[in-house]
Structure formats: C-alpha cells, structure tokens
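Page 42, continued from yesterday. The earlier attempt failed because a stray header line got pasted into the input along with the sequence. Redoing it now with the clean sequence only.
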Amino acid sequence: MLTALEQGVKGGKWFSLIDKVYAAANLTRAFARVKANGGAAGVDHQTVERYERQMSANQEKLARQLQDGSYRPQAVRRVWINKPGTKERRPLGIPTVRDRVAETALRNVLEPIFERDFAEQSYGFRPQRGTKPALRRVDGLLKAGYTWVVDADLKSYFDSIPHEPLLERVQEKVSDGRVIKLLSSYLEQGVMEGLASWTPTAGTPQGAVISPLLSNIYLDPLDHQLAARGVEMVRYADDCAPRARRAAKGQACATT
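This time it went through. Structure tokens are written below.
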C-alpha cells in the first residue's frame, strides 16, 4: 500500500489519496477486516452477513459515493459496556457496517503514511506492536536502572481530543482536501442513544475504526518532544509511563 501511495508525495505531503480509499481492492480488504472483527449492527440494523449478501452492489455504491463526494456516514449507535474488573461502564459507539467498511478503507490509506514516523515509545494500536512488546520495553528499562516511574492516564482522552488541532496535524502530511473532508465527517458523526441524538464537538468516538489511529496522530508530537528531552517513556494509547533513574528526574517527568 505504501509503495502505491508514494506516487502522490510532493514535498513531504501526500496528494491524490481519495482514489486509493475507494479503490475496489481496498474496499474488499476493508470489508474482510470488518467481517473478521464481527460486531453488532448499527442504527440501520444491517448486519455484516446481510451486507455481504449484496456485497457487489453495496461495495459499488459505496465506491461511487466516496468518488463523487456524496458519501455521508450515518449516526453511531451508542451502547454502554462494563469496564473489565470494575463496576463502572463506558460508552461504545457502533457505526453501521457500511461506515465501518469506509472507515477501514480510509485507515488503510492513512495508517502507513503516519506509522512510519510514529515515535518508538508508542505501542498501542500499532501494527506489530501491542502489550507484550510494551512490557518487554518496561522490563528492559527496569533492568537498565530506570526504577522511578510516573504512571499517567489521560482522563477521557478519546472523548476530549479537539477536532481542529487534530485535523491540522493530519494536514501536516495529507493535502488531499477530499480525504480531510471525509475524516471531518467522522469526527462530526452524529450519535444516537435510544430516542436521543446529538453531534459531538470534540473527541473521536470510542468504537470507531479510525479512532485509535487518530489518537496516536494527536499524541505523536508529545512522544517526540519527550524523546528529544531524553525522557524514557512507554506509551500505550492514553496510558503513559515516563521512567527515570532518580526521583528528581521522575518528578520532572510528571510536570513536563
């Protein structure tokens, strides 16, 4: 995918990406990912199985809408799920199958562009990374003498990411206005819970296919700034653990 995308690079920015999003091969790959992940139906009550029964027609219609700019995501169905190990509950957004396919197709295009420049200390929601590599890195730092830790969790991170600064960071690399418009439509996607509906003014919906990538894009400058200052840190999504050999350095991390 990245090799094909590089044909549109000029001056460090990526142009002419929308055709890569709606390409038949990309939409087919996107549906395969959606099918593998499973999940409930969205507000239109269409299941993955029902979408697949009219696969050709659905995919061709989606491609046309993405191409001519008429595509608009439907509202996300909000449900509440239990947090593991607690009595608390958290909201989860369930997009329609069609929107999950389109989001995944968009992520397939954006992810390799940003992934190659993400900071080394970021482990959450990244290819060939995850909890085990993060734990191995933590273990390595402990053995190297980094025994002081500042454990930080960004409260309600996914729900509070400001849209405009996030889009500005995406546009530092992406100069295709139609891709930016498509991404904006997901950030402004309506939410339905029972009979109530509203449009969020900040955040990326938890449960949205593209939210993890956007969360990493937004925090990547922080990762690089801390690395430039010599701060050893392991970050997994909105959980980060700067480490230091002495207490004074650990305290400095907490206020940086």
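Notes: The chain has twelve helices and ten strands.
Reminder to self: strip header lines before submitting.
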